[in-house]
Model the fold of this input.
Amino acid sequence: MNTRIHPLVLGAAFLVVAGCNQQTAPPPAPVSVAPAVIAPVAAPATTTVGTEIDDAVVTTQVKSALLANPEVKAFDIKVETRKGLVQLSGFVDNQAQIDRAITVTREVSGVKNVENGMTLKDGKTTVGNTVDDGIVTARVKSALLADPAVKSADIAVVTRKGEVQLSGFVNNQAQIDSALSATRATDGVKGVVSELSIKK
Done:
């Protein structure tokens, strides 16, 4: 049996199909993306200009106090200050000088704490020793200055009979390691004593 579809019905069906094809797909559901977590990088401890000025004043006052004290050989003692923490280093004759230097330093206005990095001298030195030590000190300072991994301006260098003492405040352990390595590789250095502290 032949059934014929009425033209109007056929046209309506065509319009329905065409209409369905022209509909746009619904927009995709928004995807929530968790923000990336970035691990913080530890920056070196910093100081303000005011703090640095205060530290410089404290350093000067401590040096003056040590120089004025007859029981302390002030010229053998290096003084470094950071945020009121005073580090004393260098070679001294005996324990009494160390104790006295610490006491004198604690009495200075602005000193919050004292870090002892002083080392006892081992025997007498000759004029030749003194000259050689001066040369070694100059060589070590040059080596530290030439090493980009070391902030040499923050490191004090003292030498006695070829033994070099490094002191001061640096940013991190890597700088300490680099300073020790550069010093040990310097001609004339027989030993190294580190009194370096990491800045806080």
In short: The CA atoms of residues 62 and 105 lie 6 Å apart. The two ends are 100 Å apart (CA to CA). The chain has two domains: 47-121, 122-200.
